[in-house]
Design brief:
The protein is of the alpha/beta class. The chain has helices at residues 2-12, 14-19, 23-30, 42-45, 49-57, 118-136, 148-157, 167-184, 201-209, 216-236, 243-250, 260-273, 304-317; strands at residues 34-35, 61-70, 79-89, 94-100, 105-108, 112-115, 143-147, 161-165, 195-199, 255-256, 277-283, 289-294, 297-302. The strands form 4 sheets. Strands 1-10-7-2-3-4-11 form a 7-stranded mixed beta sheet, sandwiched between helices. The protein has a two-stranded antiparallel ribbon with strand order 5-6. The longest helix is centred in the C-terminal third of the chain and has 21 residues, at 216-236.
């Protein structure tokens, strides 16, 4: 999950330039991002009065939704295969990532009980944020989205990522790449064997999409974290003199509800908090959920009262959840 930290921080790191006096350059770089306006009213975002009270008590914590979307083109809403609540915690000097499982059985406004991943497809980031807020009593007002094809470009811009590929993953990586290459009308290089290796964008995205090995979707979310951790490591290794250029290459592949000023303010919070630690947790926690088949569809049904409590303790009190 640390991987998302740097992908998102690369959006905010321009603020370092601002601190150094480069206002004009910062605004120029941020203008490369795709900004999508969403309603910011509490009702439209599903923010409850209890969540507002929590926020008022924790003004040093800011939550942003991060979505990794599976879509074939920009005109599609797509399903959010990866959903992470990024918490900038100035109190505990941490940046925390709370990963929410895609098959979570939740209530989606206008669509009844269904999988959390469907909210993005039904109503884009607006409904996805509202669904998270309503079901988990949070106060999220902004988001950042990256789709699989832009993730591919992000990885290539970084020169690939180092991944330890397992033997049973090799053929599946090549299969997913074949599908992607056919859609994008491009060639690709097959992964020829297992072991540590530098994967290109198309290879790494194919790796992150694998579902049909032991571990299923839980293993897939682990692969996604592995890919993004690799990206995080790559960005961390960039020389300071090269960093503005790297950020410039990454920003065009992201979409957000925040304008330049919003991002600069949030980036300033990151810098002011002097956050040196990043942490992650997955929800629901093992022992607090069960898989259920309903009308032929598999859902992850959680103890929502316990899950919301664990999520809040993690975000606001820095208490990491423990599996049963």
């Amino acid at each position: 999950m640390k991987r998302w930290k740097k992908i998102v921080l690369s959006l905010f790191v321009i603020c370092v330039l601002v601190v150094g006096g480069g206002f004009g350059y910062a605004f120029y770089q941020l203008s490369k991002m795709s900004t999508t306006k969403i309603s910011k009213t509490d009702a439209d975002l599903g923010i409850k009065s209890t969540a507002i009270t929590k926020v008022e008590q924790s003004t040093d914590i800011t939550n942003v939704a991060l979505f990794g979307v599976d879509r074939r083109n920009k005109s599609d809403a797509g399903r959010s295969d990866s959903m992470i609540v990024l918490s900038i915690d100035q109190k505990h000097k941490k940046i925390k990532m709370s990963s929410l499982m895609r098959d979570f059985y939740v209530s989606v406004d206008g669509h009844g009980q269904t999988k959390l991943t469907h909210a993005y497809a039904y109503g884009g980031p607006q409904l996805a944020i509202k669904t998270i807020n309503e079901n988990f009593n949070l106060d999220i007002r902004d988001y950042v989205t990256v789709d699989f094809y832009d993730l591919e470009k992000l990885i290539d811009a970084l020169g690939g990522v180092k991944i330890n590929v397992e033997q049973d993953e090799v053929s599946l990586i090549n299969s997913y790449m074949s599908e992607t290459a056919r859609i994008e009308k491009k060639s690709f290089t097959k992964v020829t064997g297992a072991g540590p290796q530098n994967l290109s964008g198309i290879q790494a995205v194919a790796y992150s999409r694998i579902r049909y090995t032991s571990g299923d979707d839980f293993k897939r979310t682990e692969r996604q974290r592995t890919v993004l951790t690799g990206m995080f490591t790559k960005i961390q290794s960039v020389e300071a003199s090269e960093f503005p250029s790297v950020v410039s290459n990454l920003l065009p592949f992201t979409e957000t509800s925040m304008n330049s000023i919003d991002i600069m303010k949030l980036g300033t919070k990151v810098i002011a908090s002097k956050s040196t630690t990043s942490d992650q947790a997955r929800f629901p926690v093992d022992g607090y959920w069960e898989g259920k088949m309903m009308s032929g569809v598999w859902y992850l049904v959680a103890d929502m009262k316990a899950t919301v409590n664990q999520l809040h303790k993690y975000i606001y009190d820095d208490i990491k959840p423990v599996a049963k």
